[in-house]
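Researcher: Structure prediction, please.
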Amino acid sequence: MKATIYPSAIHGSVTIPPSKSMSHRAIICAALAKGRSIISNVAFSDDINVTIDGMRQLGAHIHAQDSTLIIDGIEDFQHLQKNTVFCKESGSTLRFFIPIFSLCNQEIRFTGQNRLLKRPQKIYADIFQERGLFFAQDEEAITIKEALPFGTYTLTGDVSSQFISGLLFALPLLSEDSYLHILPPFESRSYVLLTIQMLERFGIHVQFQDENTLYIPGNQAYQPCDYTIEGDFSQFAFFAVLSAIHGDLTINGMDPQTLQGDRAILSILQDCHVPYTLEHNTYHIQKTNYRGCDIDLQDCPDLGPILTVLGMYASSPLRIYNAARLRYKESDRIQAMEEELKKFHVDITSNEQEIFLNGNAPYTCEEMLYGHKDHRIVMSLAVAAICSKSACTIDGAEAIRKSYPNFFQDLERIGIEVHIHDQ
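Model: Predicted structure follows.
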């Protein structure tokens, strides 16, 4: 699919879709709880759909009704529907599922597409192999055969917090206590806090013994819970940056008290001197001639692509650092944004873990843009195109289905002209 974006004035308001991070966690916890849970305000993106399908394979009964899920959780781990679990492109789904599905104590294959099985999984490989358990990975699948035991686990904290969260879902169900030691630097800590928050809502208790050690009591049981998913600050960031560059906008549906790490977009806007106000759960972002700043991406890596667009229009240099993990996402996000923004003649350079931008607007782009099979690249390029002086076409725009299938419709609601070309 191709999407042509025309420079347009923006106006009005937009309601941000529910958090993908919180949706994954709520669906998994509800599916592991004996009894019925109601999960409200769910957006059925590709990533969320594969998590739903996977928990159904584990034996949960999940019924979708509009934006609500009615989930009757599993009784035990003896009702696996089939032994191949398709995770599509969802790194969260895959890394959350591996420890959980191991509790079935059967041979299970996890499959995916595009770059999913090329993304780092060494932490799990080491964990399984150190305990004499089978773990094999090739370009087609990851295969496990036995259940992870209780005990003490040591993980590096600078690859992905998803490995930590995956273990946190499974270890409380084992017969005895476990410990997780996270070797510093402990990056994306906020995502682990989101997992702990969700576990608590479903009756599972874990606690930090010190800054980098988690204690997980064993022999626990998930309890059913009704839960409403809050707005997604990862998606909020696209509209906040668009507004700062292009025109005032009202953004609805957010929880100002959230633990989401991507709430960091608010402090970044402040550092760049972008004015905004908060009224209840609504933010009002104002267009301004803002300046650049230094941005630490350690705890909010998903903001990386859209922050390069923020840097395009800053009145002084903008630097993004601690960004190395962007190279191991759905695409190499540093390389992808550098390649695409240079089509606008943006002054952007990078090294292994930093990105440097010198704004020099206005911009025009006369080449086809490419989405790199990455939802966040497509949405970031759309914002760059809106703020430029020429219409731009993005090839591979269907990648937005991974997290925000209604993104282009929401752009149209605030006045953006979008033309979709189905291939």
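Model: The chain has two domains: 2-17+231-421, 20-228.
Researcher: Thanks, that helps.
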